[in-house]
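Q: What would this chain look like folded?
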Amino acid sequence: MIPSGAPILTADAMRAAEEAVFARGVSQDELMERAGAAIAREALRFAMGRSVLVLAGPGNNGGDAYVVARYLREAGVDVLVAASGAAKPGAAERMLARWQGPTTSLYGAPVRPVVIDGLFGIGVTRPLERSIAAVFAELVRGADFTLAIDLPSGMDTDSGAELGAPRGISATVALGALKPAHLLDDGLSRCGHVLLADIGIPVDTAWRTVSRPHLATPGPQSHKYSRGLVAVVEGAMPGAGRLAARAAMASGAGYVMLTGPEPTGPAPDALVRRTIDDADDLADFLGNDRIDAVVLGPGLGRDRRAEAFLRAGLAVDKPLVLDGDALSLLGKGAAAALAAREAPVWITPHAGEFDRMFGGSGSKIDRTLEAAAASGATVVHKGGDTVIAGPDGSVRVLAGASPWLSTAGTGDVLAGVLGAQIGQGGRGVDPAAAAVWLHGRAAQLAGPAFFADQLVAQLPEACSECL
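A: My prediction, written as structure tokens:
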């Protein structure tokens, strides 16, 4: 389980935080002792009396590993250290000197039921040596449980790209703060269960994991307009618009209007329908002062009519959520078109849409931040590692979302939930993070093999957990 609301630091930011601790008089040896003690506490829980193999690299991650081995041996655990090389001068070498137990070479290490990975930590930017990667993978395969110190060895800290880390790591204990690799890309399948250990490093960052939101309960003077009027624009595929509208209704909006061509298909009686004939009619409707948020794009289509509807939506001075076809219509011109707006805008691209709109290189967090800065929009970059970024540099990450969300219509539901959160006064990354949490929680409540309509049905229960 990814810790909720936890800080996220890059490798450089983590090093800077450590240096600040050292500047206040804490020695590297003391910090290493704290880290090793934290890992040992978790290892004792998981080992349950079984013999342990501790893999120690030459650097500070290896220094942590020697501390772990010492604490486990003092607790009565049968521990063997397998070293991949001589400890580097400094703290790692001093921790090795304090280890009085048996040590062998990594290449001669036997398979043991529990493996603790302390080969390499943050800052790895190139693939592991082939021989080390092969031995590491073999030891992990033979173990019942593998615990990684800070990061599995062979992970790019800032992008989550796999650089030799094997599958099969059972759990990872992040030290001081989460790293992007715990949350992004291959890290989702390489880190196992992620735990966070506080080792006394103060952290100040605008990057955090998504946390459970607090939704305001309507007061005695509340009414449908005070709780937010959300307008959803229907298009060529009206079912998508209906899903978004129903999701907005089920996640706290006081009043939802679905506007588009002649109504088709079933819809709740509480959903207000407004028929429009063309883009001019839409522009007039969206000028209604009571409207608090507009959702445009789900099932919109990509023809000239859809393009005209998109222009009308972009021109209106209202908070705007753009999803689906609206994003495809924007294409490479997205940043300029969105930056020209004065009213706030949120966009919800999946990976393909994001690539067509913004391209770029680097980690998913970096790319999403760049897109937010260029467009002035709050960007909800969807996926199993959903990244939310605002123009102010704020980041929220939701990792490990239900894989059953990979079905048609769930993005339309998210757009509607986001519209409801914005309609109640949310701004920036906060309503986006709330919507992503509610969407993900509804998926958990729906269980496996659900379809988007069933996801909508779980939203009230998800909301009830946030009051």
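Residues 229 and 467 are 21 Å apart (CA to CA).
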